[in-house]
Write a structure and sequence with these properties.
This protein has 286 residues and is α+β, with helices and mostly antiparallel strands. It has one domain (2-57, 99-283): Alpha-Beta Complex (paralog of FGE (formylglycine-generating enzyme)). It has five helices and 13 strands. Strands 11-10-9-12 form a four-stranded mixed sheet, with helices on one face. The longest helix has 11 residues, at 44-54. The radius of gyration is 18 Å and the shape is globular.
Length: 286
């Protein structure tokens, strides 16, 4: 884990391409107490250790299916694997696949044996919370996550600055090509990348944007932060969805440029997909 000293930082964004309806803005000063954060997302290996120790069964395993990006499925199997009744009209590239779960990311016939250093996926907010409790940690607040992602830089779009590919180099794992039909993998990966791929940010953290969305503890609201004190904010007390931050390997400028540090997304705490994971934090004690 890495120590984030806390103090004041500027949270949010008001760029031309910000998703203001999501509540990214306005830019506001937030004050945080010190905390430690995992330098990388929880890996398949770490989650395997948790399951071996506890016998935990994830929500996707109990439900019997989870959402998988169709581009990761062999075309010959797509029609056979998908659950027709669970198709998402607004996002037809998501297939509900019987048997897909954290240890079988693309469903039957897939495994994580060669991806133990990749982030665990198909974990719900509830699953992530169970892992945190086992590890003696907790999920970050949205403010903690964003402060950590910024790595000490002020009001920058990405953990490394304002340009997505400085000098033509890729600093994160997102979708290149034509979404959703073809990912060229120009950044080195299609699908997930190892949790310690690419360069660290100023706080020594890997993959704070791209790769997988990361669950935060806060419930979602587009405007809670406009009306409440911003000293160690924890979000609203009520709400049906939880915040995710950072974007994923499926984010693309033509559809979802939420690989910026200020961007946010929400889903129900029992939802599982092939592009969401998490990392943990611990409050720093004096």
């Amino acid at each position: 884990m890495a120590l984030v000293a806390g103090g004041k930082f500027l949270m949010g964004a008001e760029d031309e391409d910000s998703w203001l309806e999501d509540g990214e803005g306005p830019v506001r000063e937030v004050t945080l107490s010190p905390f430690y954060i995992d330098i990388a997302a929880v890996s398949n290996q770490a989650f395997t250790n948790f399951v071996k120790d506890t016998g935990f069964t994830t929500e996707a395993e109990r439900c019997g299916w989870s959402y998988v990006f169709k581009g990761l499925l062999p075309k010959s199997k797509q029609r056979k694997l998908m659950r027709q009744e669970q198709l998402v009209d607004a996002a037809p590239w998501w297939f509900a696949v019987d048997g897909a779960c954290w240890k079988k990311p693309e469903g039957p016939g897939s495994n994580i044996f060669k991806r133990l250093d990749h982030p665990v996926t198909h974990v719900s907010w509830n699953d992530a919370l169970a892992y945190c409790n086992w590890a003696g940690k907790r999920l970050p607040t949205e403010a903690e996550w964003e402060c950590a992602a910024r790595g000490g830089l002020e009001s920058k779009r990405f953990p490394w600055g304002d340009h997505l590919t400085p000098g033509g180099k890729h600093y994160c794992n997102i979708f290149q090509g034509t979404f959703p039909d073809r990912d060229t993998g120009a950044d080195g990966y299609t699908g997930t990348a190892p949790v310690q791929a690419y360069r660290r940010n100023g706080y020594g953290l890997y993959n704070m944007v791209g790769n997988v969305w990361e669950w935060c503890n806060d419930r979602y609201s587009p405007d809670w932060h406009r009306h409440h004190p911003l000293l160690d904010p924890t979000g609203p007390e009520k709400g049906d969805t939880r915040i995710l931050k950072g974007g994923s390997y499926l984010c693309h400028e033509s559809y979802c440029n939420r690989y910026r540090v200020a961007a946010r997304y929400a889903n129900t705490p029992d939802s599982t997909t092939a592009h969401a994971g998490f990392r943990c934090v611990v409050t720093a004690r004096n």
